[in-house]
Amino acid sequence: MTRDSYEDFAERYDWMKLDNPTRQEFFRSIFNMYGVKSVLDCACGTGRDLIMFQSMGLRVFGSDLSDSMLTVARRDICEANIPLRKVDYRELQENYNREFDAVVCLSNSINEVLEDAETLRALCSMRAVLCAGGILVFDQGQTDASMRTPPEFAPVLNNRDFTRFFTMAYTGDIQTVHIFDFIHTKDICEFKHSSVRIRIRLLDSWCQILRDAGFVSVEFFGDWDLTPYHKNSSQRLIAVAQK
Ligand SMILES: C[S@@+](CC[C@H](N)C(=O)[O-])C[C@H]1O[C@@H](n2cnc3c(N)ncnc32)[C@H](O)[C@@H]1O
Question: Which domains are assigned to the chain?
């Protein structure tokens, strides 16, 4: 990330976030299974998941590279007293002198580094701050099945005051997501556009690069309900990789 691609978007980011009890239950089950007591969300954005993890009784830490996302997090979740730091997830071991039972990197955040070498660096950095047997959890919305016909349009939200849709453009395995927001309240009529570039990897590529980063076992899920990942049908890819 060379410039802060969330600068124009951070204030509106949480408008599309809806509570998802199945997602919360996923983390409760996985964290129980691996005995997780401490978690670092290394791309915490506006911090919404930090609050969810804290509500599970975990010791919670948040970091992100975007000043604008961290500004929103510092304002919106200040009462939770969660330590928040500006750290590039490729440099975690240089910035944390402790280990965590889990590191999470959620909602396509891992895809925001585009080059193979940078993704490998990121995964090695996340692994380095895990304690022995600790887990890395990340997820992406693109899958082997969905990328057979790469989607070019996604309606996201439409209510009385606000409409959001995405369009997607592709150059090889780089996807540029254009975010279009229309604000149409009683007092405001405004249009905003922002965009984010992500690197799309499919199952085989993730298996290889996670192995290269030194993870000993990896489990892939196809949805938050713990369904195993199926190349032919899954519409989400969730990885749980153990150190
Ligand atoms: C789509 S947002 C997801 C935020 C949050 N995880 C969520 O689920 O709402 C992607 C986040 O990844 C962060 N990010 C991208 N590259 C990063 C890097 N190299 N180090 C740390 N954070 C990064 C962005 O700043 C942004 O906050």
Answer: 10-144+201-242 (3.40.50.150), 146-198 (2.20.25)
Of 8, 12, 64, 138, the residue with max ligand 1 atoms within 8 A of its CB, to mutate for a pocket test, comes to: 64
Is the entire prediction scored with pTM above 0.90? Answer: yes
**From the CB of 88, is ligand 1 less than 6 Å away?**
yes
239 Cβ closer than 6 Å to some ligand 1 atom: no
Tokens matching residue 176: 């540029």
Tens digits of residue pLDDT in 204-240: 999 999 999 999 899 999 999 999 999 999 999 999 9
Q: At what angle do helices 203-212 and 116-128 cross, to 10 degrees?
A: 60
Question: Residue 19: which residues within 8 A CB-CB, separation 6 or more?
Answer: none
Check if 66 has its Cβ closer than 6 Å to any atom of ligand 1: yes
Question: Is residue 106 lining ligand 1, measured as CB closer than 6 Å?
Answer: yes
The tens digit of pLDDT for each residue in 157-203 reads: 999 999 999 999 999 999 999 999 999 999 989 999 999 999 999 99
Task: Tell me the three state secondary structure of residue 139.
Answer: strand
Q: Which residue has the tokens 């691996």?
A: 34
In the chain, alpha helices (H): 10-13, 21-33, 48-55, 67-76, 92-95, 116-128, 203-212
